[in-house]
Amino acid sequence: MPKVKIKRKSTLIDMTAMCDVASLLLTFFILTATARQPEPLPVDIPSSTVTIKLPDTDISTLTVGQGKVFFGVVGQDVRINMLQRIGEKYGIEFTEQEKLRFSLIESFGVPVANLKEFIAMSGNDRNKLQQPGIPRDSTNNELNEWILQARYATKEIHNQDLRFSIKGDSNEEYPVIRDVIDILQSQKINKFSLITSLEGLDR
Predict the structure, then answer these.
(1) Is residue 47 packed enough to be buried (19+ CB in 10 Å), middle (13-18) or exposed (0-12)?
(2) In the sheet that 193-194 helps form, which strands lie side by side, from edge to edge?
(3) What is the spatial distance between Cα 123 and Cα 36, in angstroms, rounded to a whole number?
(4) How confident is the model over 157-196, as pLDDT tens digits?
């Protein structure tokens, strides 16, 4: 008796819906992602076995390398408030446009006297600039003032204490790190984080 041939059905699957979903997800991630700005001073951080993650908000990072110190604080609103306070302290008036431009700068290392010129630069020029670092000597301790005004700004806006972290180059001389720690401790800041990479991972 002859076998009955079963009609083969097509195995094609309509992928239109899947492509639409993939396109929407891709568009969403592109629009919501923020581009990471290049660091003004790349540092080779030391390694450790500690795996505690830094918080995402109310954090200030002091980057130390090549004998220079750079300062950065999270939050555009905090940066604007901090700049306004620094302007009042040093008798410099910043425009709303300058405040807005400064709020987009994650980290910097220039004296207050050069701040207006630094803010006016384009992003590319700013990245190419060899920033001298924030002054921290006994006669002109601007770093101490930035830390103080950042604390006031964070307290006023978020009603929380600003947390500090030190990101030092593994080859940096100890006295420079010691200077930064001394400035923090002069303001009774005895709890801060040291940024390291996980032991065994490439940096």
Answers:
(1) middle
(2) 68-73, 59-65, 163-168, 193-194
(3) 12
(4) 999 999 999 999 888 888 999 999 999 999 999 999 888 7
Q: What is the spatial distance between Cα 92 and Cα 2, in angstroms, rounded to a whole number?
A: 99
Strands 163-168 and 193-194: parallel
For the segment 112-126, the average pLDDT, to the nearest whole number, is 93
Give the phi and the psi of residue 59 in degrees, each rounded to 5. Answer: -130, 140
Secondary structure, 3-state, the chain:
CCCCCCCCCCCCCCCHHHHHHHHHHHHHHHHHCCCCCCCCCCCCCCEECCCCCCCCCCEEEEEEECCEEEEEECCHHHHHHHHHHHHHHHCCCCCHHHHHHHHCCCCECCCHHHHHHHHHCCHHHHHHCCCCCCCCCCCCCHHHHHHHHHHHHHHHHHCCCCEEEEEECCCCCHHHHHHHHHHHHHCCCCCCEECCEECCCCC
**Minimum mean pLDDT range among 25-29, 75-79, 126-130:** 25-29
CA–CA separation, 176 vs 168, rounded Å? Answer: 9
Question: CA–CA separation, 90 vs 169, rounded Å?
Answer: 31
74, two tokens:
């999270």
Does the reported pTM lie above 0.85? Answer: no
Is-contact 142 170, C-beta < 8 A? no
| Two tokens, residue 127 | 């990245």
